[in-house]
Amino acid sequence: MESIAVKWDRAYADSDPVNAQPCAVLAENSYLLPSQGLALDLACGLGGNACFLAAQGLVTEAWDCSGVALAKLKQYAGTKKLNVSVRQCFVGAECFVPSRFHVIVVSRFLDRSLCDAIIASLVPGGLLFYQTFTLTKVNEKGPSNRDFLLENTELLKLFAPLDVLYYRDNQRIGDASQGLRNEAQFIGLKQPKPLE
Ligand SMILES: C[S@@+](CC[C@H](N)C(=O)[O-])C[C@H]1O[C@@H](n2cnc3c(N)ncnc32)[C@H](O)[C@@H]1O
Asked: What structural domains and CATH numbers belong to the chain?
């Protein structure tokens, strides 16, 4: 595990959070966000999602194993007065507390063993925004390790307990220079508890 953090620390050594963008599924569907609550940017890197969520008024946690990325994010969020707190950890199911987050965002990270904990960690009425790389690609972009690549429609299966508000994966159909390629997008809603 240590070597993963070292690898990512090196990757972030020359990067600046000012250039970090929210993932498209979040930015393009931000009208779904609640006006307040607690959000998580899981495997946040430089925190493009975290800063976006905080700018929307959500108290935001940003988790990642890279101390370099988190140090840069913490400093950047401080200068922008964004309510982002960072947590350095190797994410495992034990990191999650049930019914805690109103919003969870995961982009360009996949650990299938976390899915149940992610669902449990949403409050009833909470939203999951997910966007990551697919096995069906039109070019070499993204990881080559199959463990980190989604099968066709896999996000729908991994998060089947959630109501699907949005799903997109254009696979290799049609004009491959257009549309969403190499990645899938998903927004899921944890149904609020029925009224007694
Ligand atoms: C491809 S980057 C994506 C970063 C960010 N979510 C984005 O979309 O720009 C993957 C991130 O996952 C983090 N990561 C990888 N394995 C991890 C683990 N086991 N626990 C915590 N973070 C991890 C890396 O440090 C890196 O920041």
From this structure: 2-189 (3.40.50.150)
